[in-house]
Amino acid sequence: MLFKSDQTVENAGIQYNLFKCIKWREITSYSHYYYVQADVNSNAMNERIFMEPYDPSVTSWNTSVYCNPTSPPTLEEYHVMVKKGFESQAARPCSPSLIAQFTYTHNDGSTQTCSSSSSLSVCPTWNTMTFDYTKCSTEQAFSKEGIVKCLMFLSSGTTVFTSVLNPGDVTDSRHSVFTCYALERTNDTVYMSDNRGSCAPGQQPKVKQTAGSGTLTMEYQDSCLDQPPGSSVGLCSLPSNWDGDWYHSGKTDVVISGRTKSITSGWDVTVSSTPLTTWSCVTSNDTDSYLLFKSDQIVDHNGTSYIALRCIQWTKITDYSYMYYPMTDREPLASNARIKLEEYDPAKLLWDASDYCSPTDPPETEKFHILVKKGKETQAKQWCPSPLLARFTYKHVTANGTETCTGVSSLDVCTNRTTMTFDYTKCSTTQAFSSEGILFCVKTLVANGVYYTMVLNPGSVDNNFYYRFTCLATTKSGNVVYTSDRPLKCAKNQSSIAVAQGGSGTLEMSPEETCGK
């Protein structure tokens, strides 16, 4: 929409018309947000205004001329409008990272106030932030009463910009109708800066803004993201010990917050240049062992906002190790990651696992993932599969046909039936991406006569030559055992006698002594 001022202004003796072009989008029937599509103008106090010499002969104006700034506004440079008298109808769920109960500290740039006795709650309403001033009287969000309504939020990388409305008293200069928060989450901590009115260009969560009161450091006490308004109980139950740091058979390790029932690190997926970095559990199905997670970030794709969901089906191996399958179809916009994109609907508060955990193309048996609690690697060990229970000599063959270890070699899986020990003093060729040649068997599944074993490397890892997890595909023919390897996880239909994509080669092993059951 293109607007022209009804008055002209004079600058250096010349009369000018002023134009403001906006690109708008509806939030609710009573609220909208918009961007000003003009360059910053130093002659207009650095506002985004288009100035043009007044010409009385010009009576029409084309948006193609006035709505194409050379430096368009950044994502956070939006403005919000709310219809007076309809403030409650404009409220929408806060950013998922805020739907919880917190304690917090406030830093105004020189003084820190509030402590572990403070309280901010966004439960159970999801759309109202309530600061308890009886526990800490430092005013927040430029609100006299400490109550603000969430209106909308947008994500840029790991930073979320949230606009809130103060429905209370704003008759003095200390208080404001609108506040913008820039926030980011790190595990169970949320960092947040405020800015009076709209967001400041380049606003950062940990930096006090010129028009801000300071920064907040907030600690989760409880999450209610799996407890929609009106529900008396949470809808998600994680396995009881899912908390802290876990080794993961993906590219990165995983951090789980049992307190907030979320994956706070290690499940990163990128959709349309938007990284989805944290995932909160919204429901579970204990009968089928399903867990449904929703991304805390929103994706904008071709002007439409989406959320992402991912379902997993888990199985306990030991108290400190689990396997799971991703039970969602592949999404082309996410480099074929197994997630589901769904158009964002702020009014939707419930998600049923049955709608998201039945892929038309489910993962194959060998495409399982492993989680092992850090520090508990030895407690996660399981017996290696029967074809590997022996002392072997072996030869290693690479993809180009190079053979090593054809003379003296040794693999021992008898001294400890849960541990594979390659003797590198006899043959120094690295096996299963282990610098030390020691691997713990964690889980084995059998498909089409092939034993798929996930082994854990308890030694050094650089994710280049040496990896934490390796998948071994093993078969036995006569008295010979064949194995191929692949870092991180198994390949689809991984063969024991062919080099897997990314694998180091194949082993042809001859037992000198067996020690099976």
Short summary of the structure?
With 517 residues, the chain is mainly beta. The protein has helices at residues 63-66, 87-90, and strands at 2-4, 9-11, 14-28, 31-36, 40-41, 47-48, 50-53, 79-82, 100-107, 112-113, 120-121, 128-131, 147-156, 159-165, 178-186, 189-196, 215-223, 244-248, 254-257, 262-265, 269-271, 274-276, 279-285, 290-295, 299-301, 304-318, 321-326, 340-343, 369-373, 390-397, 403-404, 411-412, 419-422, 438-447, 450-456, 469-477, 480-487, 506-514.
Commentary on this structure:
Helices cover 2% and strands 43% of the residues. The protein is mainly beta. It has 4 domains: 72 residues, no CATH class; 136 residues, Lipocalin, CATH 2.40.128; 113 residues, no CATH class; 134 residues, no CATH class. The strands form 6 sheets. Strands 9-11-12-13-14-15-16-17 form an 8-stranded antiparallel β-barrel. The longest helix has 4 residues. The mean pLDDT is 95.
